[in-house]
Amino acid sequence: MIIRLISFFALVLSAWSAHASIQLSSTRLIFEKGSREVSVTVRNKGDVRLVQSWLDKHQPTDPVPPFAVTPPLAKVDRDSQQLLRVHYAGSGLPADRESMYWLAVQEIPQKAEGQNVIQLAVQQRIKVFYRPAGLPGKAMEAPKALTLSLKNSELTINNPTPYFINLSSVAQGEHDLGGDTIAPFGSLVLPASGLIASSALSLTIVNDFGAHMPWQVQLNQGIGQGLTLVSP
């Protein structure tokens, strides 16, 4: 029975890979300094697809996304591309911090007539950031302001900036705590049993261009501040 289940899921994953023919030109979109429109290109390397796009909330408590995607539904031929434009309504988001949403892009394969095959509607999501004009500092330097506290086998990372911190991982030697997105003026708590309270931590933070940048901070009796970017 277990072998049959494994075989089934292997077939499903294989089918998913075969149908994931849509590629996006970016891993994130950023409305810089109050701009009203950003765009991403959808490329189709497979058969003809219908592509449906919309905005989702980052958190359930977030406001309804004040954005529109055009076109919301498009037919993309084989080896062709489609430009998706995301428009900001112009109001409804805080002016003192970034806001984050998700752009969902779902490919809908055409039905294969006369064939008994699994049709998968594969969905991809990329982050959308709205960055108001006039925010202090620079987003690329925001990690320098993070503070860390190791206490009771938990690592708390505080973000005092108006920018989102896209933390990919936190590690000390062989201990990898994982990561998450830290909201502006927010914090993240990670289980941290086994960490040394007076040793260096390595953090990997994703920048505006989708690059994973290595940062480091020294813990002193469980307290860390003043992250530095590690030179390649």
UniProtKB/TrEMBL annotation:
Entry-linked Pfam families: PapD_C, PapD_N
Question: Carries keyword rRNA processing?
Answer: no
Concerning Gene3D superfamilies, the annotation shows: Immunoglobulins
Q: Where in the cell is it found?
A: Periplasm
State where it is primarily located.
periplasm
Which superkingdom, per the lineage? Bacteria
What sequence ranges are listed for the domain Pili assembly chaperone N-terminal?
A: 21-135
Give the signal peptide, or none: 1-20
A GO CC term attached to the entry: outer membrane-bounded periplasmic space
Q: Which GO terms describe its biological process?
A: cell wall organization
Q: Ranges for the Pili assembly chaperone C-terminal domain?
A: 157-213
Q: Which family does it belong to?
A: Belongs to the periplasmic pilus chaperone family.
Give the protein name, as stated in the record: Putative fimbrial chaperone protein YadV
Gene name of the record: yadV2
